[in-house]
C-alpha cells in the first residue's frame, strides 16, 4: 500500500512539473514583432517574514491602450513572493509610438500555496485582476513596472490550512 501511494504521489508530481513553463504569447503578435518600446512587468513580495514560501500562480497578463490589446508575452507561471529583494519577471509588453498611457491587468490562477514554519496550506488567489494605469513616460524611466505586494497584509487566514489573498500593493516605475 505504501509503495502504491508513493508511486501515485510521484506520478502526480511529475505531471504537475510538466505543466506550464513554455507559454505561447498572450496575443497573436509577439512583443518583438511590433514597432515600439518593450517594457517589463514584475512582481515582488515584501513583508514576508515568517513565511518559508508563498507561491502565487499567474493566469494572464493583459495590457491595453485606447481599448486595443497590446502584444504581451507571459514568461512566468508561478512566483514565490518570499524571495528577498527580488522582483520576478512576469512578462513583457510592447507599446507603439505615440501612446501616452496603458492599462495593465494581472490575473492570478485559482490556488497557490504557503508555508510558515511547520504549517502549510492552500492560498486562494481567486480575486479580481490587479488593475492599474501606467503612464508611458513613467515606464520609460526604468523600462518596467514593479507591483510590490505586501505579503503580511495580503494573506488572510480563513481556515487552519487556508489563506485568502486580498492584495495590498503599490506599483513603482
Q: Specify the oligomeric state.
A: single chain
Q: Helix count, per DSSP?
A: 3
Q: How many β-strand runs?
A: 14
Q: How much of the sequence is in beta strands? A: over 45%
| Rg from alpha-carbon coordinates | 18 Å
Q: Tell me the structural class.
A: alpha+beta
Order of helices and strands: HEEEEEEEEEEHEHEEE
Fraction of residues in helix: 10-25%
Shape: elongated
Distance between the termini: 55 Å
Overall pLDDT confidence:
86
Number of separate structural domains:
1
- Low-pLDDT segments, ≥5 res: 1-28
Largest sheet: 9 strands, mixed
Protein name: Lipoprotein
Organism: Hyalangium rubrum
Keywords: Signal
Could you characterize the architecture of this molecule?
- The protein is α+β, with helices and mostly antiparallel strands and 173 residues long.
- The chain has one domain.
- The protein has helices at 2-17, 136-142, 151-154, and strands at residues 37-46, 53-65, 68-69, 72-74, 78-80, 88-95, 101-108, 111-116, 119-124, 130-135, 144-150, 155-159, 162-165, 169-172.
- Strands 2, 3, 5, 7, 8, 9, 10, 12 and 13 form a nine-stranded mixed β-sheet that branches. A five-stranded mixed β-sheet has the order 4-6-1-11-14.
- The longest helix is centred in the N-terminal third of the chain and has 16 residues, at 2-17.
- Mean pLDDT is 86; it is low at 1-28.
